[in-house]
Amino acid sequence: MNQSAINLKQHTFASVAFTSYLIFASFSSEAQNCLSDSMAQTTPNTQFVIHGDGTITDTSTALMWKQCIEGLSGIACQSGIINETNWANALTIPQTINNSGGFAGYADWRLPNVAELVSLVEEQCSSPAINESVFPNTAYKFTWTGSPDYYNDTATWSVDFNIGATGSITRQMTGNVNYPVRLVRSAN
To answer: How many domains does one find in the chain?
Structure first.
């Protein structure tokens, strides 16, 4: 079997497994589950500075995050409706915010790359796999990044905050491949 056929077979298997996972994950609606007795926290509260203006600074990465995913607001991100969008629209969200005066006094918000977004994953928890006391009301689903998949020019890396996994998702510029967005900026 030539290398192209092997890559296609591996990609097809990964797509089937990934699709099966998405179907299973969409039915999950349980509360956050953390293995705090057997695992240390990977994103403890002490790692974050909560500014009280809807932003949080991660002292380990020097990144400032919007506390709520787009569409939500309030101290516990309890107000509003999650803005789930396709990747093309996700790319325009930070530009729109920055061009209309920014958020919390900053006008340099952007989509995070996959490594930046993965840094928020709390590995001891699932449903959601994030520190809920710092980032409340996070959707238990994939969240867009600005990182295209190097091996698939029609896909983008995303982070699943249900179980903390990453996945390369085929993006459609229109249609119903819609996920939430969390914006970031450099804190320096």
So the answer is: 2
